[in-house]
Amino acid sequence: MKKSTLNFIINALMFMCMSAVAGIGFLIKYVLISGQERWVIYGDNVELFFLGLDRHEWGELHLIIGFVLLGLLVLHIYLHWKVITCVYNRIFKKKLIYKLISVLFIIICALLIIGPFLAKPKVSNVEHGKGR
After folding, report:
1. The whole model's pTM is what?
2. Which distant-in-sequence residues (6+ apart) come within 8 Å of 25 by Cβ?
3. What is the CA radius of gyration of the chain?
4. Is the domain of 48 the same as that of 10?
5. How many Å from the N-terminal Cα to the C-terminal Cα in the chain?
6. Mean pLDDT to the nearest integer, 60-66
7. Fewest beta carbons within 10 Å, which of 62, 66, 109, 119?
């Protein structure tokens, strides 16, 4: 398979995954609404489903598609690595700035990926009838 055909397929799959992640996110946020909002709209604590899945099952699908998108992104970067380094070298001509920005970029990306695993949630008891 030609590299251009492979790039086109990967880019199309990435766009499809991103569209699905956005669409499912909107579905979870605005259609399959959470507890207190359901009480207000429907007057009772009901479960909401779309295509047989509740908001938590859609959330699981959202996560899986996000991982697929992340994998495709890594593949995309791998296939375009020469272009990325050429453009980067053209933009940042001084080696010190080049290295500093590279290290900062890697640290920020690593923190954004690993940070949620290091987060500790605040735990508090809910008094009866108080809710959130």
Report:
1. 0.77
2. 62
3. 22
4. yes
5. 55
6. 97
7. 119
> Would you say 50 and 109 are in contact if contact means Cβ atoms under 8 Å apart?
no
Residues spanned by the domain of 74: 1-79
Question: Do residue 52 and residue 66 come from a single domain?
Answer: yes
| Domains held by the chain: number | 2
Q: Return contacts of 83-90, CB within 8 angstroms, 24+ apart.
A: none
The residues that bridge with 53 in the sheet, in sequence order, are 50
Q: How far apart are CA 102 and CA 107, in angstroms?
A: 9
1, 22: one domain: yes
Evaluate whether 10 touches 79 at the Cβ level (below 8 Å).
Answer: yes
What type of residue is 10?
I
Any domain includes 127: no
The verdict on 61 and 12 lying in the same domain is yes
